[in-house]
């Protein structure tokens, strides 16, 4: 499996192109369509879907353009379904003082759901706290399990809980529950560099 961060740009929000053979998905939507197209063209891969780790604006800035350019569905966990269309919930109003709507997801996801896109398989793991619908996308690689952790867990910290729908008690429960996952799980967070889940959690407990 190949994982490429296409856009550590605005708000330092990562955009991961996940490819296995000729199949690909995007985790979060901040890269422009041209960048995604160039990355796909280098490998001959086909994009199947755009998966959002949660419903904040800085993780779906280019969702509309990408969905139009590639004709693929936008997926988001059910508890965050209304975030894209609501500037208060998606935090755009807080940061910019104005309304802005992002695309409503084509499909909502649920805890434990297994997603298959050609040769790529991802399992949805609910990780509420940063938002009600924050999730991990879990998969297996030859060397170690992989988690796309959004703004739940970073290499050196965890997501803030003071935005709309944030819940510090839920975050504590989530972080405790994540200790059951393999320590060697490689995390690909929504911001910053990755690391291992065990190391990240050691810094929190």
Question: Could you explain the architecture of this structure?
Answer:
- 20% of the residues lie in helices and 29% in strands.
- With 205 residues, it is an alpha/beta fold.
- A six-stranded mixed beta sheet has the order 1-2-3-4-5-6, covered by helices on one side. A six-stranded mixed beta sheet has the order 7-8-9-10-13-14. It has a two-stranded antiparallel sheet with strand order 11-12.
- A hairpin with a 2-residue loop joins β11 and β12 (157-158).
- The longest helix has 11 residues, at 33-43.
Question: What class would the helix/strand composition place it in?
Answer: alpha/beta
- CATH topology-level name: Metallo-beta-lactamase, Chain A
Radius of gyration over C-alpha positions, nearest whole angstrom: 16 Å
Average pLDDT taken over every residue:
96
Order of helices and strands: EEEHEHEHEEEEEEEHEEH
Helical percentage: 10-25%
> Can you summarize the main beta sheet?
6 strands, mixed
Shape: globular
Strand content: 25-35%
CATH class: Alpha Beta
Architecture (CATH level 2) name: 4-Layer Sandwich
Total domains, how many? 1
Intertermini distance:
31 Å
Describe the structure using short key phrases.
about 200 residues; alpha/beta; Metallo-beta-lactamase, Chain A; 6-stranded mixed β-sheet; 5 helices
